[in-house]
Each structure stands twice: as C-alpha cells, then as structure tokens.
User: Which sequence fits this backbone?
C-alpha cells in the first residue's frame, strides 16, 4: 500500500478551527460545526459589506435633511439647489459639515436657495 501524508488536511482543519475561535458552543472546537459556522459568517460578512454602504448613505441623508430643515429647506430642495448652483460636494462631506460646522452649512443652504430662486 502507498504511503499517505496527511499534512494538507491537518493544516486545513487547524486553519478552520483557528478562524472559528470565539464562536459559541461546538462551533469553535468541532471541525464540522466550525466549518458550517464559518460558511454562515462569511456569507453575512459579504452581505453586510454591501449593506454598510447603504446604511451610511441613509445616515448621511438623515443628517443633511436635519441640517437643511434648520435652514428652512427640505433635503430635496437643498440638494437640487446645490446642483443648480454647481456645487459638487458629496453626501459624506456634507453630512460631516452639517454636524461639525453649522455656519458653513448655512452658507451652502443660502447658495442652494439663491440658485433655486433664480
């Protein structure tokens, strides 16, 4: 009978159990359970990397809307006015300005209002 060297399978098993450290129950010690838990965890991670972009965009829009309403405009009016005024600032930066620097945001709102009125 030929000789069988088992190092590859052992390395794979050890790597899987290493990645499953911190999982609950048998999922951190039983290879089969660890493999199943990792499949689930990786699918959640893949899904949520995409959802994170969606979640942050919602947060930014909420912050911009709140700041725009303090300046007497809705989010839609504000964004439309910025586009007409030729101001190209993305939502991430606008949300940061809305939270940290109300005076600068007020100037953006004034520019948007003037561009909408014209």
Assistant:
């Amino acid at each position: 009978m030929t000789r069988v060297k088992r190092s590859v399978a052992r390395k794979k098993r050890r790597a899987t159990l290493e990645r499953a450290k911190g999982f609950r129950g048998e999922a951190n010690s039983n290879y089969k359970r660890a493999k199943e838990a990792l499949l689930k965890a990786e699918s959640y991670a893949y899904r949520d990397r995409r959802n994170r972009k969606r979640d942050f965009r919602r947060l930014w829009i909420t912050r911009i809307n709140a700041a725009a309403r303090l300046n007497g405009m809705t989010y839609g009016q504000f964004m439309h006015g910025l586009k007409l005024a030729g101001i190209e600032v993305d939502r991430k930066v606008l949300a940061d300005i809305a939270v940290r620097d109300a005076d600068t945001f007020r100037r953006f709102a004034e520019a948007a209002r003037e561009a909408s009125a014209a």
Observations:
- The mean pLDDT is 96.
- Helices lie at 7-19, 31-70, 75-85, 91-100, 102-117.
- The chain has five helices and no strands.
- The two ends are 89 Å apart (CA to CA).
